[in-house]
Each structure stands twice: as structure tokens, then as C-alpha cells.
């Protein structure tokens, strides 16, 4: 049964393929009307046509390159002004292969613009809209590399660590206002991001690679269960809870009025 009037609209970035297109299918099945955002208007139209026929929901195509300030502002203004939008999926992102020492710094800057700046501006716009209303949901797609900076390009993992930190702060700020905020940390997932970054998904061991359908279904199960952080491949959530507890245990000692004794012992 179509329940779109109850669900409202979901605005999805990076919606033309992979994780974003899969989320679009799943959210349409749940009765959300959709606003699909990506650079490739032709591919967006194909996704939209399929979803309209399959689920009977309204699907709007909103082409935008989120690394372009004017086009980003177009999407941001839509999030601030459309009272029917009830869910933001901040999914658009890119990766860059290689080491910082020999990097194409312009590609790194574009990655930071997409993975950090656009995510922040769109999250802020949705937060303002949803916070005033006292309802709504924001899902930010990060990566397990937010927790493992030694495993890959540090700039990419740094952008995803930013998304994780931003989301955790948003949870504290928006939870009391009735807005649900989730961070999703996928591991390696079969999407086009590998080829676009200059790598190949075939280089990965098969046991490390998850299909996009499985990843999104797990992430939405975590959303339904009220998880603040969802790591689809993590077998035991106790491991995440232990990491969180260890981080919180550092809290009382992270800022004190004197240096630690080990530094005083070596003072000249």
C-alpha cells in the first residue's frame, strides 16, 4: 500500500547509481515520495521512471553537481523550504586513490567539497527545517575507514571521520528536538566509486566486499532499530560499544590544568 502522504518525501544525494539508487528503491517501497539528486540527469531519469512504475510514488529529478556552489545552494534551498521533505540521505561522495605526497591536489579539494562541505550544508539545511517541525530524519553515509585511517588514503578517511563526528554531534543537538540522525559506516561495497577513483573492486578479497542491496537493507534495519551508528558488516555490536566506552573514558583527562607527569619528568 502506498503510504507516501504519511511518509513525506526523501531527498537522496548520489541517487543515480549504487547505494543511493538502492536507498531510493527501498524508501519508495516504504511509501516515500522522492527527490533524486546527482550530476547525471539522464541516469536519474532512468532511475525515476523505474521507481514510479514499480512503487507508484512521485519521483522528482533534481540534477546538481554538489561540488559547484550555485548548484549546491539550489539543493540546500530546497531542503530549507520544502515542508514535505521528511528525510535527507546524505550519500553523495567520492574517493581519490594515491598518496598525499604525489597527489592531484585539485581532486583532493573536490573530494573535500563533496564529502565534507556539501554534507555539512545539506545537513544544516535539513536540521533547520526538521528541527522547527520537531520531526524528520537525517542519514549520513560515512565509511568504516573513519575508524581505520591507516588502511587507505588519509584524506578520504579524514572526510569520513568528519561525517561521523558531525553526525554524533547532530544526534546530541537534534535528538531532543525529535529529529532522528543516523550515521552509516559501510565497509567495501560494490559500487562505481572504485573505478571512478582509479582503482578496481576486483582487487579486493571477495570476503571483504558487500553488495549494495545487502548494505542498504542492513543500514535500514539499523535505522528501524534506532541505532545511532550502523556498521552493516560488524558481527558484534559489543565491539563498537567497547570502543565508545573507551573513548568516553578518556574524557575527564583530555583537558586538565597541568601536563601529564610523564612530560614533567622529562622537563629540562
Automatic annotation (TrEMBL):
This is SDR family NAD(P)-dependent oxidoreductase. One of its GO terms (molecular function) is oxidoreductase activity. Belongs to the short-chain dehydrogenases/reductases (SDR) family. InterPro entries: NAD(P)-bd_dom_sf, Sc_DH/Rdtase_CS, SDR_fam. CDD domains: SDR_c. Keywords: Oxidoreductase. It holds the Pfam family adh_short. It comes from Herbaspirillum chlorophenolicum. Its EC number is 1.-.-.-.
Amino acid at each position: 500500500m502506498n503510504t507516501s502522504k504519511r511518509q513525506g518525501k526523501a531527498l537522496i544525494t548520489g541517487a543515480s547509481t549504487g547505494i543511493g539508487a538502492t536507498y531510493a528503491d527501498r524508501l519508495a517501497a516504504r511509501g516515500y515520495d522522492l527527490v533524486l539528486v546527482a550530476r547525471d540527469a539522464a541516469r536519474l531519469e532512468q532511475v525515476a521512471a523505474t521507481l514510479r512504475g514499480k512503487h507508484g510514488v512521485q519521483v522528482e529529478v533534481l540534477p546538481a553537481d554538489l561540488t559547484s556552489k550555485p548548484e549546491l545552494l539550489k539543493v540546500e534551498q530546497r531542503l530549507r523550504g520544502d515542508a514535505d521533505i521528511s528525510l535527507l540521505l546524505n550519500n553523495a561522495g567520492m574517493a581519490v586513490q594515491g598518496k598525499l605526497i604525489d597527489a592531484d591536489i585539485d581532486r583532493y579539494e573536490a573530494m573535500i567539497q563533496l564529502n565534507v562541505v556539501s554534507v555539512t550544508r545539506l545537513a544544516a539545511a535539513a536540521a533547520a527545517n526538521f528541527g522547527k517541525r520537531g520531526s524528520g530524519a537525517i542519514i549520513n553515509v560515512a565509511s568504516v575507514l573513519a575508524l581505520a585511517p591507516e588502511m587507505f588514503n588519509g584524506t578520504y578517511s579524514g572526510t569520513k571521520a568528519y561525517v561521523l563526528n558531525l553526525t554524533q554531534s547532530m544526534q546530541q543537538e537534534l535528538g531532543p528536538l525529535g529529529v532522528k540522525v543516523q550515521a552509516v559506516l559501510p565497509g567495501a561495497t560494490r559500487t562505481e566509486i572504485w573505478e571512478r577513483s582509479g582503482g578496481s573492486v576486483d582487487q579486493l578479497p571477495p570476503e571483504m566486499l558487500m553488495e549494495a542491496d545487502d548494505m542498504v537493507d542492513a543500514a535500514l534495519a539499523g535505522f528501524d532499530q534506532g541505532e545511532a551508528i550502523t556498521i552493516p558488516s560488524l558481527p558484534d555490536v559489543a565491539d563498537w560499544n567497547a570502543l565508545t566506552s573507551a573513548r568516553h573514558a578518556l574524557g575527564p583527562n583530555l583537558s586538565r590544568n597541568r601536563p601529564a607527569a610523564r612530560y614533567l619528568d622529562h622537563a629540562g
